[in-house]
Amino acid sequence: MLYGATMFPTDYAIRPDELARLLEERGFESYWAPEHTHIPASRRTPWPGGPELPKEYWHAHDPFVALTAAAMATTKLKVATGICLIIERDPITTAKAVASLDFLSNGRFLFGIGGGWNAEEMENHGTKFRQRWRVMRENVLAMKEIWTQDEAEFHGDFVDFDKVWAYPKPVQQPHPPVIMGGDGPRTFDRVIEYGDGWMPILGRTAGGPSLAEKIAELRRRAKEAGRDPMSISISTFGAPGDRDGLDKLEQAGVERAIFWLPPADRETVLPVLDRYAELMA
Fold it and tell me: Which of 136, 233, 242, 263 makes the best surface tag, with the fewest CB within 10 Å?
């Protein structure tokens, strides 16, 4: 099983380039940077993680800038968005950012995406909450055209452009893997149609099928849809901090376990990294 780590790259935490070097030195496979462009002060939408929204949600660097710093400080570590809120982004400029980062990192970028939970945040970007999944689908499909075609065009309800030239193209072919976050009733539909991986957050859902049962269902449905089930990677955010829990994830079919890191200074983060490294070993 591969091991990654996620931390909000904030203005008060360890720098992303320094964190990336520490991760690579300890054998981590990937670093995942979350995204929030801002948090509306009204705080109308409840946070799915609890009653109080942590301040890192409105102190984070742009993930593509932070991940570029991380990539330039390392040689093997993969850099990833976890997750990119593409419903708040222009697909043409985001396709450029993804391709540029993949090019400059020599093919080390993983594109984690999701629909988001903060209705007023996305509304500030012009996306209505009820339309976010349709917007996400068209954004991804349009970006795939830009990444793979010399003259790309796309015509949808939310994204519409005639033939364009856009370079660089990604190093990874046909493009960096699109890894879908979330665990909703339609998540597997999205993964199978335009994703290359699934990435739920452990502990965010209660009851229902086990993780192993969900992975089996995803692979069954992928096969029925004509896709190679094993071509869809399985990652989990919020990996447990004990060997038994990690072993159970691997037995369930998880390929990548991603640990949470506190957005804090080096002295606070370093012992946490070392403890996770011991579990990995």
Answer: 242
The phi and psi torsions of 81 (rounded to 5 degrees) equal -90, 135
Instruction: Assign a CATH topology to domain 2-280.
Output: TIM Barrel (3.20.20)
Quote the CA–CA distance of 57 and 3 in Å, as a whole number: 24
Q: Nearest-CA neighbor of 37 among 89, 72, 91, 103?
A: 89
Task: Output the pTM of the full model.
Answer: 0.96
Q: Parallel, antiparallel, or unpaired for β 2-6 and 30-33?
A: parallel
Please give the DSSP secondary-structure letter assigned to residue 62: P
Q: 52-65 burial by CB neighbour count: b if 16+ within 10 A, else e?
A: ebeebbbbbbebbe
- Domain segments of the chain: what residues? 2-280
pLDDT, one tens digit per residue, over 195-238 is 999 999 998 655 679 999 999 999 999 999 999 999 999 999 99
Alpha-carbon gap, residue 239 to 144, rounded angstroms = 30
Residue 53 one-letter amino acid = L
- pLDDT at site 238: 94
Contact indicator for 237, 5 with CB cutoff of 8 Å: no
- Residue 100's alpha-carbon distances to 151, 195, 269, in angstroms, are 18, 20, 29
Question: Is residue 89 within 8 Å of residue 43, measured between CB atoms?
Answer: no
In angstroms and rounded to an integer, the radius of gyration of the C-alpha atoms of the chain is: 18
